[in-house]
Write a structure and sequence with these properties.
The protein has 579 residues and is of the alpha/beta class. It contains 20 helices and 20 strands. It has three domains: 216 residues, Rossmann fold, CATH 3.40.50; 79 residues, no CATH class; 196 residues, no CATH class. Strands 1, 2, 4, 5, 6, 7 and 8 form a seven-stranded antiparallel sheet that branches. Strands 9-12-13-3-14-15 form a six-stranded mixed sheet, sandwiched between helices. It has a five-stranded mixed sheet with strand order 17-16-18-20-19, with helices on both faces. Helix 14 packs parallel to helix 15.
Length: 579
């Protein structure tokens, strides 16, 4: 059976220029990004070519052209395949790709290209059926997939397989007809049923008597064209039957995936099945998300090609980096970044990580990755800090001077010390996520000093600047970094005079938030209560820090509503300083 090698989308919905997505081998393809970035449009493109409806006659609507501009005329979706053969009309040709495109003046929209020869041909059902694509959309559609509303539902496909297997044995078919005949006799023992059936036949005969073809009816407990058509999937709880309406939406999600996978295992040996799942985390509690993510990875390892769109870091695995695709809106529509281990290693080497290699880079990152860190891939910008104290307190301070990080999609991520800042700066900039670093400038600690110098060297500062900054005990907010003189708390005590220390005492005496056990919570407590009216120069410094972060990776034209609350800053910054 066939497998997808890659797919390319151009001119479709939010996609302007060609986007190429490679299918990883035996790991899920995970599309991540903000809402409205274009993840679902990539899934729809793949579903259009390989999904349940025939694409050859599909007429795209205006909104399916990029920019709603039908006059542009071009939509192209090409799915490259392996192990697909065209055997129509005595052929035995390997199919390279299926192409659905809209070109003015060309009515033939659905074609295939061949691997060993030039030219194209019209796609036939035998070719397309070698890649079965099933979409579990964001609305879950469990009742749809487990019903008979079309011949393309999972249950319709399943019962057709059962019917074909049964019909292969003539003796078994005759025996089943005899058994069903006895069942029909029981139906006819119900007087009301017989009366209604007779009356319905009389009415139909009377109303359609002058038609060339009259309509005959037959109430039957079975369909001889599909003996399994009366098969129903019945949810149950504690042995008692339930309706689909009684299921939680999270349960529906899991049941739909289980049903489709069991179907694939039974009839396709999993090869040739593409399972696309939109937002599998929806309506599932965190532990259930982790369990489902684990099962999805297991299913992919067994050969099912899985495409997932998600907003949950539970579905991200650094060791499966080649399957992670960051989807985002660029200046001209949807763009994507998909990295291999080699790509990430090259980026790390270019930014000073001299010991990096293709074979070690993924284990290196996987060893230190947490969900909190990986969640930065869903952000518009990330601010890397040493620990949870800054991660809890700084967003509150910045919101109070006009920059609301959550509203602006800015993630504050604690990485576990200054020595980890370069590692994750390289990771996020490899995915072109604008990245800002904040650290303590404790020059008395030799280890801290080495870490500070590596951070500054990684983000592109000269050796002269590094030497000067490393010996500076001031609070410095620069274009791509911020350093606190000695440490975060000592600097704030200095810049907020006695008011900061007064709140420290209140946090400790009244709420038990001491330095030893509750430093992050105490910092948050102070950030929420420090007065904006005390005239401290610390507020001016926080305001400058907000400006720097606001302009990171942005131009004046693309600034958000933050402009209304934070003064504009003239400089623009490049968030990817290395090629």
């Amino acid at each position: 059976m066939g497998r997808i090698r890659k797919f390319v989308v151009e001119g479709y919905r939010s996609v302007c220029h060609p986007i190429e997505v490679n299918m990883p081998d035996r790991i899920p393809l995970v599309l991540i990004g903000e809402n409205n970035a274009g993840k679902s449009n990539l899934v729809r493109a793949l579903d259009l070519v390989l999904g349940e409806f025939w694409p050859g006659n599909y007429e795209p609507e205006d909104h399916e052209f990029y920019g709603r501009d039908r006059s542009s005329g071009l939509i192209k979706i090409e799915v490259s395949l392996n192990n697909v053969t065209d055997t129509s009309y005595g052929r035995n040709d390997q199919v390279n790709s299926l192409v659905w495109q809209v070109i003015p003046g060309d009515p033939d929209r659905f074609k295939m290209t061949y691997g060993a020869k030039s030219g194209t041909g019209r796609v036939n059902g035998l070719v397309r059926d070698q890649c079965t694509c099933i979409l579990v959309s964001a609305d879950r559609r469990l009742s749809y997939q487990l019903g008979y509303s079309s011949k393309y539902t999972a249950l319709s496909k399943l019962t057709k397989k059962f019917h074909d297997a049964l019909s292969a044995n003539a003796w078994r078919v005759d025996d089943l007809k005899n058994q069903y005949g006895k069942v029909v006799e029981v139906f006819h023992e119900v007087e009301e049923f017989v009366d209604f059936q007779d009356e319905l036949k009389r009415q139909i005969a009377d109303l359609s008597g002058n038609l060339a073809y009259s309509l005959g009816i037959d109430f039957s407990p079975y369909d001889p064209s599909n003996y399994f058509r009366s098969l129903r999937v019945q949810p149950a709880e504690g042995g008692a039957p339930r309706t689909f309406e009684e299921l939680g939406t999270g349960q529906e999600q899991v049941l739909a995936i289980c049903f489709i996978y069991a179907y694939a295992k039974a009839f396709h040996n999993v090869d040739g099945l593409i399972l696309m799942i939109e937002e599998p985390e929806a309506h599932l509690h965190p532990l259930a998300q982790h369990w489902l993510a684990e099962k999805i990875r297991e299913i992919a390892a067994q050969g099912v090609q899985i495409v997932v769109t998600t907003h949950s870091p539970a579905f991200l695995d650094v060791l499966s980096l080649s399957g992670i695709v960051r989807v985002f809106k660029g200046q001209e529509g949807t763009e994507t970044i998909q990295l291999t281990a080699r790509d990430l290693a090259k980026h790390c080497l270019a930014s000073g990580a001299e010991k990096t290699s293709e074979s070690t880079v993924l284990p290196f990152y996987a060893a230190a990755a947490t969900e909190e860190i990986l969640a930065g891939l869903f952000a518009r910008k990330v601010v890397l800090v040493e620990g949870p104290t800054e991660a809890l307190a700084l967003p509150i301070y910045l919101a109070r001077v006009g920059l609301h990080p959550t509203r602006e999609g800015i993630a504050f991520i604690p990485v576990g010390g200054v020595n980890s800042l370069p590692r994750w700066w390289r990771f996020f900039t490899a995915y072109e996520v604008p990245c800002y670093v904040i650290f303590d400038n404790d020059s008395e600690s030799g280890k801290q000093r080495v870490g500070q110098e590596e951070v500054l060297r990684t983000i592109g500062l000269s050796e002269d600047d590094i030497g000067w900054l490393a010996d500076n005990d001031d609070w410095i907010a620069d274009d791509a970094f911020c350093s606190f003189g000695v440490d975060f708390e000592s600097t704030l005590r200095q810049w907020f005079d006695g008011s900061y220390e007064e709140l420290e005492r209140e946090a400790s005496n009244n709420f038990g938030l001491d330095t030893r056990n509750s430093k992050p919570l105490r910092a948050r407590f102070i950030a929420e209560r420090l007065s904006l009216d005390n005239g401290s120069i610390g507020w001016g410094m926080l305001h400058e820090l907000a400006q720097r972060i606001m302009h990171l990776g942005s131009s004046e034209e693309t600034h958000s509503v933050v402009q209304q609350t934070v003064d504009e800053f003239d400089d623009e910054f490049d968030d990817v300083p290395f090629d």
